[in-house]
Amino acid sequence: RGGSGVGRIGSMEHAIHGLTPAGFLKNSLTAIGWMGAYSAVSKVTEGIEYSVHRMMALEKQTAVLKQTFRGVGGTAGQLADDVLKLAAAEGRGTEEAMKAATHWTRPGLSRTQVAEATRVSLIAANVAEMSADEATEKLSSVMVTYNLNASELSNTLGMLSRTSQTYRATVGELLNGLDR
């Protein structure tokens, strides 16, 4: 307890100064500065977490691709690079592009064939307004049913697109019909 009365009066004056408009403004600006700094650090941390999460997911998808791809015409790493470029070119997500590529590796297609089939799947997903996974399933079914090669899928999709422009049917509806 034994402090001087002068010290207590000085700290009271300081406390009262914080309640004045000028003091309130100064304290508010200090608080806003601290909140801005915290917010900036928080956003950077969130960005790093998101990037690490995406890289881990991509590594997992690449590992699955390595397990299913037989290495005809290149390595799984080269195929993964091809697929990531295709996803960017077609405006689709890397996860769905890798899933489509993994699907196309299962029948034993070469790197070039997988890349072409994946490209057509991503285009079909855009044109038919469906997921790349769904488009891949339907195109795969059409490929097996009509005994097509991966190189013929692009022309097949083009034919479906022209048909949808001529008749009252969407590409998605045509793919659904051919899938049955």
Q: Distance between termini?
A: 89 Å
Please give the count of helices.
8
Please indicate the percent range of residues in DSSP E strands (runs of 2 or more).
under 5%
**What low-confidence regions span 5 or more consecutive residues with pLDDT below 50?**
none
Instruction: Tell me the major beta sheet.
Output: none
Structural class: mainly alpha
Q: What are the secondary-structure elements, in order, as H or E?
A: HHHHHHHH
Tally of DSSP β-strands:
0
The average pLDDT value, as a whole number, equals 87
**Helicity range of the residues?**
over 70%
- Evaluate the radius of gyration: 30 Å
Shape: elongated
SSE blueprint and pairings:
Blueprint: H1 5-17, H2 21-68, H3 76-90, H4 94-105, H5 111-128, H6 132-145, H7 153-166, H8 171-179
Helix pairs in contact: 2-4, 3-4, 3-5, 4-5, 4-6, 5-6, 5-7, 6-8
Describe this structure in words.
With 180 residues, the protein is mainly alpha-helical. The N and C termini lie far apart (89 Å). Helices cover 79% and strands 0% of the residues. It has helices at residues 5-17, 21-68, 76-90, 94-105, 111-128, 132-145, 153-166, 171-179. The longest helix is centred in the first third of the chain and has 48 residues, at 21-68.
